[in-house]
Amino acid sequence: MATGRSTPASPPPGGAQRRVRGRGIPDATVARLPLYLRALTALSERSVPTVSSEELAAAAGVNSAKLRKDFSYLGSYGTRGVGYDVEYLVYQISRELGLTQDWPVVIVGIGNLGHALANYGGFASRGFRVAALLDADPALAGQTAAGLPVRHMDELEDIIQSEHVSIGVITTPPGAAQQVCDRLVAAGVTSILNFAPTVLSVPDGVDVRKVDLSIELQILAFHEQRKSGEDHLVDEPPAVVSRPGSGAKAVAAAAARSVSRARRGRAPASSEADRGEDGELPAVMPA
Amino acid sequence: MATGRSTPASPPPGGAQRRVRGRGIPDATVARLPLYLRALTALSERSVPTVSSEELAAAAGVNSAKLRKDFSYLGSYGTRGVGYDVEYLVYQISRELGLTQDWPVVIVGIGNLGHALANYGGFASRGFRVAALLDADPALAGQTAAGLPVRHMDELEDIIQSEHVSIGVITTPPGAAQQVCDRLVAAGVTSILNFAPTVLSVPDGVDVRKVDLSIELQILAFHEQRKSGEDHLVDEPPAVVSRPGSGAKAVAAAAARSVSRARRGRAPASSEADRGEDGELPAVMPA
DNA sequence: CCATCTTTGTGCACACGTTCACAAACGCAT
DNA sequence: ATGCGTTTGTGAACGTGTGCACAAAGATGG
What we know:
2 copies of one chain form a homodimer.
Chain A: H1 27-45, E1 50-51, H2 53-60, H3 64-74, E2 78-79, E3 83-85, H4 86-97, E4 103-108, H5 112-119, H6 121-124, E5 128-135, E6 144-145, E7 148-152, H7 156-162, E8 167-170, H8 174-187, E9 191-194, E10 207-210, H9 213-228, H10 249-263
Parallel strand pairs in A: 4-5, 4-8, 5-7, 8-9, 9-10
Antiparallel strand pairs in A: 1-3, 2-3, 6-7
Helix pairs in contact in A: 1-2, 1-4, 2-3, 7-8
Chain A binds a DNA duplex through residues 10, 16, 18-19, 26-29, 52-54, 63, 65-66, 68-69, 71-72, 76, 78-84, 245.
């Protein structure tokens, strides 16, 4: 999972009253609701009136028992012997997710990724409205992306307050992310979607979700490696590398460094100028 | 969480021998290893020789006990009273994740997002090499993106076989995703990173991870909604919408439709032409 | 060589998530 | 009405993940 919430759902170390209170939907369920919603929307567009848990689960790619349990947290919205009314369920899930209202968002850092997000149709079609595109580079200001003008960071506070923005998307290089985050929070943003490979620190009450493109690939690589060498190299001693502390610390360090060197400089020549310290996100925005 | 694996780590319904076998790292731990690796790389670049679990955990944004337990699955790589040797740990985690070898990947669908990924520095710096950019649109073929030529889908099979590609990235519109996926798998790809909002079906042995940008925002919206109306509307009856089956199905459907209508057409004018059926991913590639 | 201090590695208990399996509820035909 | 087939909703068992708390292991200073 490429995501994580910074503020855990139930931090109270004292009381342990679990998921009572009628409301109180498990995090895992909340994370799946958008999945169901997408499948239901597709059915709705095909004018399918009702759907069984089995069918919907297949369309969403989950287990049907899990789906039923998930829906049971929302209430009893199905009809036994029949299934779920598609339109009704679309409405209920939308409402539960808060998608029946308008969510203005700002995107900070209009590099390649910010550009892609600005053009992303999946936002507008789900209640999210791009209130503004912001970048620190004055050269970008005035240009348009996805029909919207790119505005300068100086306007950040004004826009957030006048448009009542509570959700911010960070697509800057890692070096600028925390600084941008602080400004967003200070201006009133309470939810942040962070694409920069940085651990953001935020005050209590602010939610951060993180999407890291390279993490996903690394997880795939892990499993891919397993598939290749199923049995061999199960306990292959790392030959050249030995534990530090055994007196061979220098050797280990050298080996590790050679790994880094091999990885670096393999990328095709391109301007390294506008990249973060780690050669990360290609968004244009000097830290 | 924007991700999910299609093939669970332990599908054997017969044997339940948990995590024995020396190897066998929990999924949750694997998902955090890239996080640790990033923090360690940063320390390594600052030439920090050793780090304690407490410090590293803070840098990675996790609990220190969790970090120690995670590392214990890899082996006993720390020194009590001192901490972990940074370079050594970088090497060990890299090796565990399979990043000490070269992973050629293909990116299919060179729209906005594919473009952004091609430029993404975080890939090359971690052992991933973009072997080819592919798109179905002949108009794109020949153009370059991030220094690489965009090639036509017809070359897909040849490239995968000659370059020994085992990882594919799908950034096409949703309508084309399954079809592209099938071709990738048929050609020998066994790990897929899917950015299209589609549930891909793949044969056993193929891993799929999914990144969905709009799902993350929807989860944020859910929590954001909670923050606003903490106590009120806790059991607010949905007034105009009533359950189908009570004889008011038409009303519910109408209300649901009006929601959809309100969301649609709010987006700033842009060509809807090259979008998928759901107005999804903006990648250029006719389904 | 011993005492003390620091930090790892892990047993254990608890919280969370998933899956099974089945009774209750509903539609429909007779 | 009654019975039958279907599908939901959920109690309970199981598996996974998290965090505490502490013993063991090493470093350091005298």
